[in-house]
Design a protein that fits this description.
Length: 181
Amino acid sequence: MKNRIVQLLQCFVYFFVPNRVIAALPGYALRHFYYRRVCGLRIGERSSIHHGVFITGWKIEIGDHSTVGRHSYLDGRGGLTIGSCVSVSPDVHLITAQHDVNDPGFADVLAPIVIEDYVWIGSRATVLPGVRIGRGAVVAAGAVVTRDVAPLTVVGGVPARPIGERKPGMRYVCDWFYPFD
């Protein structure tokens, strides 16, 4: 009984509160405070997690000057690393867990996602477990990324395939802090 109560309390503190209460708060200060201090997220300097982002698992690290757009899904169960100066557009799904469809028990399979510096992920893209997106790469809106993306490569489609290249030498930062977002 005691273990069940502890489990329910943990679920409330680490799942319900951050995704139903904290994610709905206007402004970054309270959200980032809760994510950092209570949930243990590592959020870099001048990085932002926008309104309505849904988070499961807390093995998440975000570098400096990066942004995660509204209503995105961050799955940290298998480990999620987002580099510096990364733009994750709204409604992006970064999924580190799936099921083994051939296992009789439908076992969980976890694999980390690594997103290197200066990556841009377009709206409604999905990145699946075990993927590394190289420095300066671009994932087009709506793409489903099932395998690694080379640096400076633009990918799109389902499944994502190379569709172009990006010039090197990026220097921008993603300091997007909108009041009450």
